[in-house]
Design a protein that fits this description.
The protein has helices at residues 4-22, 54-62, 85-93, 120-123, 135-148, 152-155, 160-176, and strands spanning 29-34, 37-43, 75-81, 98-103, 128-131. It is of the alpha/beta class. Bound molecules: zinc ion.
């Protein structure tokens, strides 16, 4: 269920994504909140490092030292793109109870990975997942990135599923006027 603060928090995540875009980096931004309190915000920081995703940067920023966060703290992760397997898995491992993302990632998104066969730890800890919050705005940033990137991966047609989703969204929006 979309909550009141979701649009606002996603706005902050979109701001982070724009910072990445301005540096020519794939524009993903992320925010972590505890209720209405913002604990941290980050964006993807390197072109060619698969560990420097927005969510991982954010996790390192917030969960450092002997932190005392628990699942009772109402921690929500906001991200402008559905998390990949690394970020989704790390989120499951952290005391985060809610995930809100803007754009679905038809290439590598793992938010809807089925966990029926997961070990007991992950069967007993459910997470609420909400997708599509400010999706079009996130999508426009990805479209801007795809139109301007010099990265070999994208120039040679990488992640064609993702690219098709972005193009379909932009086309649908254009047709709506
Ligand atoms: Zn990731």
């Amino acid at each position: 269920m979309v909550e009141l603060a979701d649009e606002y928090m996603m706005g902050l995540a979109l701001g982070e994504a724009r910072i990445a875009l301005d540096k020519g980096i794939f524009p993903v931004g992320a925010v972590l909140s505890a209720g209405n309190e913002i604990l941290g915000r980050s964006h993807k920081t390197m072109l060619s490092n698969h560990l420097s995703h927005a969510e991982m940067n954010l996790f390192h920023q917030v969960f450092k030292g002997d932190y005392t966060f628990s699942r009772a703290d109402d921690l929500t992760l906001y991200t402008t793109l559905e998390p990949c397997i690394m970020c989704f898995g790390t989120m499951l491992h952290l005391p985060i109870t809610r995930l809100v993302f803007a754009m679905d990632d038809t290439y590598g998104g793992c938010a809807h990975t089925r966990l029926e066969n997961a070990p007991p730890r992950h069967l007993s800890r459910s997470i609420e997942i909400v997708g599509g919050v400010r999706r079009l705005e996130a999508c426009k940033l990805f479209a801007d990135f795809l139109a301007t990137t010099r990265e070999e991966f994208w120039l040679t047609g990488g992640a064609s599923h993702f690219r098709a989703t972005v193009e379909a969204e932009i086309t649908a929006h254009a047709m709506q006027g």
